[in-house]
Specification:
Number of strands: 37
Strand content: over 45%
Distance between the termini: 127 Å
Shape: rod-shaped
């Protein structure tokens, strides 16, 4: 019995010594682990809660200047352990209520500093819980708190769950009102990290120097692998972005759910190498109260140490049509070339489709209600050489309205250099089959050039020739120079084969008919946007024609004429007829007419000379003609509708 008592006493003393030493052993293990990552001035105090749990009542550590951390502080730090694992430096569970990490500034290249052990899992407990991980760094200012949960089961991947919660964060060049997220990670030996599908990051009210993002959710998944040169490879993965809009200076980008797919490995260590694809079903671009709705956007992007390549394909959301673009940049030669084409031109032939829908809020001087719009362009830039932007524009079978004019059969072919100076690469052509403003003009053909005359001035439009059919004849002019700054114009217009019966029908003077063909010219001037005809002269072709005037009783459509002239005009066979028109900017047209011939009603064989002057407001006449045409069209439409119903 005596020996048993002595044995129990020694056993009790041994266990007591072991209990006390395990606290010191725990302190030593923790201090050693901190030293491996550059810890200095380490203070650790461990006390026992029970036989299987330790409480670290205080832990503070500073680090060397070259270390990643500046200091670590812990509060309410609990370890749950098995005695045999504790001797090996392992514990079953680590639970931390508050962990504060203060980081140093980002290391410069070439700086050697202590790093984490390669096999970090051997240093980790089986379960780790950090309920409040507070990180502060010179690069980040604000309230950033994380929750960290780690499962470190032997023979299984290391499972990591990271909850992010930040407010009023300030980063270099960025400010975030809120940052939240949840990342589910799996890793083995720290060389391969798998990001599970439920991972996401959400940001709100992001402010950059020129960029603003109201709100966005990034849904993440994929795999990262560390390479021998300490770079990282991202394996094919998908990132989905849901955002209300991205503000880039005055440009607002509002996509629907956006998907970014890595098509090949993404290499993070400079130079970055990756091949990715971006898809979104719809995208709205807004800029200074103007907007462009797009859909079916596909972007393919490739980058490596030699080149950058971009391919994009998208459609307009309201107008049928598709645009395809590509960009290639040689990093070694600092050379860029971009090209965009339209595999399917914009088609304005459908109902409720017009040119105003191409760019909403853009005030165009015309409205296209029909036509095929096609455009291609190239951009070239090379080191120490100027940037060049060229574009070819084509419009086929256009129809629409320009101010008070309606037009049909509009065809435009124009090749332009847009930068560094706007000018035509080759002469352009414009053709309009019908232009109507009450007075109909047909088959208008214009050959033009745009000429750059100075570094800081707008280009000048040079019309090499213009030709059109009007009133049964043709008009043409050449070498018309239009300076957009001067708003002045002075040109000579030639008239050939103008039918007088169509001129009279235009005026609709009751009882008056005239036959014959006129040729001549008029001088057309424009000052301050106002047109006028200061001079002009037209003369009849041989063999002349016939004037017959039998006004209805009480008619006052022509000025009061002497009885001699009224009698002569009942039937006047003229050999010569000249007219000198004058047109004022207020719309008044004055025509002095001189005619020579014979008149059977006068019963004389002598030649008869008549001088007449007419004056009419052309603007009022055209307005009445437009009204009459609209009324006729409306009646015809009603008749069609009625016939359809019947």
């Amino acid at each position: 019995m005596r020996y048993l008592t002595i044995f129990v006493c020694f056993l009790t003393i041994g266990l007591s010594l072991l209990f006390v030493n395990r606290l010191r052993i725990s302190e030593k293990i923790i201090a050693d682990r901190l030293q491996t990552i550059g810890g200095t001035d380490i203070q650790v105090t461990v006390s026992a809660l029970n036989n299987h749990e330790l409480l670290i009542t205080s832990l503070r550590s500073s680090f060397s200047k070259d270390a990643q951390f500046q200091s670590i502080q812990l509060h309410d730090f609990a370890l749950v352990y098995d005695l045999r694992d504790l001797i090996k430096g392992k514990v079953a569970k680590l639970d931390i209520d508050v962990l504060q990490l203060k980081l140093n500034k980002k290391k410069k290249k070439g700086t050697n500093s202590p790093s984490f052990p390669k096999d970090i899992r051997s240093y980790l407990p089986k379960k780790i819980s950090v309920h409040n991980l507070i990180i502060s760094t010179p690069e980040i200012d604000g309230d950033l708190t994380l929750q960290l949960f780690i499962q470190n089961s032997r023979g299984q991947p290391l499972d990591i769950e990271l909850d992010i919660n930040g407010k009023n964060l300030s980063l270099p060049g960025w400010n975030l009102a809120a940052l939240t997220g949840k990342l589910f990670l799996q890793t083995e030996n720290g060389t391969t990290i798998t990001l599970q599908k439920d991972s996401y990051i959400e940001v709100k009210d992001v402010q950059g120097v020129t960029t603003q993002l109201q709100e966005a959710v990034f849904l993440l998944s994929g795999k990262l692998t560390k390479t021998r040169d300490k770079g990282w490879l991202a394996w094919p993965a998908t990132m989905t972005v849901e955002t209300e809009g991205l503000q880039l200076q005055d440009l607002l980008v509002q996509p629907s759910s956006l998907s970014l797919q890595l098509k090949e490995q993404l290499y993070f260590s400079p130079p970055v190498q990756f091949h990715s694809a971006i898809d979104t079903s719809s995208l709205l671009l807004e800029w200074k109260n103007k907007s462009v709705p797009l859909k079916d956007i596909q972007i393919d992007f490739v980058a490596d140490k030699h080149r950058l390549q971009l391919a994009i394909l998208f459609s307009h959301a309201l107008v049928p049509g598709q645009i395809e673009g590509s960009l290639s940049h040689n990093l070694l030669q600092n050379k860029t070339k971009a090209l965009f084409t339209m595999p399917h031109p914009f088609d304005l032939s459908g109902e409720d489709v017009n040119s105003d829908q191409l760019v909403k809020g853009l005030p165009l001087p015309f409205l296209l209600t029909n036509g095929l719009v096609n455009c291609t362009g190239t951009v070239q830039w090379e080191n120490n050489k100027a940037l060049f932007i060229n574009s070819d524009f084509e419009l086929q079978n256009g129809a629409g309205v320009y101010k008070n004019f309606t037009f049909n059969g509009l065809h435009i072919q124009q090749g332009l250099q847009l930068y560094p100076a706007i000018h035509t690469i080759q002469p352009g052509t414009v053709f309009i089959s019908e232009l109507d403003n009450g007075l109909t003009v047909n088959n208008i053909e214009i050959h033009n050039q745009i000429i750059h005359t100075g570094n800081d001035t707008l280009p000048t439009l040079l019309i090499d020739s213009v030709e059109a059919e009007i009133l049964g004849g043709k008009v043409n002019s050449k070498e018309i120079r239009i300076d957009p700054l001067l708003q002045e114009l002075d040109l000579l217009v030639q008239l050939h084969g103008i039918a007088l019966d169509e001129v009279i029908n235009l005026n609709k003077l009751n009882g008056l008919s005239v036959t014959g063909i006129m040729d001549g010219s008029i001088r057309l001037q424009m000052k301050n946007g106002q047109f006028s005809i200061p001079e002009g002269e037209l003369h009849s072709r041989q063999p002349g024609g016939v004037i017959s005037y039998h006004p209805p009783e009480g008619s006052k459509e022509l000025p009061q004429l002497p009885a001699y002239a009224m009698k002569a005009l009942r039937e006047f066979n003229y050999d010569i007829l000249t007219a000198t028109p004058r047109y004022k900017s207020d719309g008044t047209l004055n025509i002095a007419i001189h005619t020579e011939g014979n008149s059977p009603p006068l019963n004389t064989t002598r030649p008869v000379h008549l001088n007449l002057t007419t004056e009419q407001n052309i603007l009022s006449l055209l307005q009445s003609l437009r009204y009459s045409k609209r009324l006729t069209d409306d009646l015809e439409q009603r008749l069609r509708t009625r016939r359809f119903k019947d």
